[in-house]
Design goal:
One of its GO terms (molecular function) is triacylglycerol lipase activity. One of its GO terms (biological process) is glycerolipid catabolic process. Pfam families: Abhydrolase_1 (PF00561). Helices cover about 40% and strands about 20% of the residues. It has an 8-stranded mixed sheet with strand order 1-2-4-3-5-6-7-8. It has one domain: Rossmann fold, CATH 3.40.50.1820. The protein has 12 helices and 8 strands. With about 250 residues, it is α/β, with parallel strands linked by helices. The protein is globular.
Length: about 250
Amino acid sequence: MPSFETSDGLAIAYLDQGEGEPLLLIHGFASSHRVNWQSTGWVQAFNEAGYRVIAPDNRGHGWSDAPHSADAYGMERMGRDMLELLDHLGIERALMMGYSMGARIATHLAVGAPQKVEALIIGGLGDQLVQGFGEADDVAAGMRAASMEEVVGETAKGFRVFAEQTGSDLLALAACMEAGRENLTPDMLGKLTMPVLIVVGSEDEVAGDPEALAKLIPGAETAIIPRRDHMRAVGDKATKAAVLEFLESLRKVA
């Protein structure tokens, strides 16, 4: 798959498929464009709906370079990768959808570079975006653990299992998690003016409260996916239906 070189010299792999309005998809922690968006049917669904899908592998993930130093990560740096990718492709402005960590990156972009974001879809993330992820240290330690038996905490165990299933670089993931999550403030979110949809599974115990987050973002809509947790909501047909309906409503307004 194609890749480009970032301003700090890393190769970021990406999928660029379909024609139409550009839609940037940013995957979650320990995932990849393939796991998050291709194998779940998102790319096909978006292409069939008339969107050009841009789906990178975040640094430390998938086919992209994976440094083992926390200094190479963080929301600002990972967000800059996305802006540099859009510049590389000659895209001035795009729809953006992120899931979990990817939603955090996308929202940081919406705050820091709103001129680049046509609309924002926040998946698998509620007010943890503001409150912070309290289990980050456990997850990072879980990635560095010599075996599953040494991993502490159910969330950390879940991410370790997922990382092994996706064939991820565990030390790169530890560095990514250790870099921090730079929480956004209510004041920052209150200045967003683009259309926003928040999509979270009803059984998601990682995301935080989606309704509480929606109250901080002017005009934000929410879609709660019944009987789905953090890992299962992303590929659910109800999630796709909610997102596609939201995007179609923007077309009607335009």
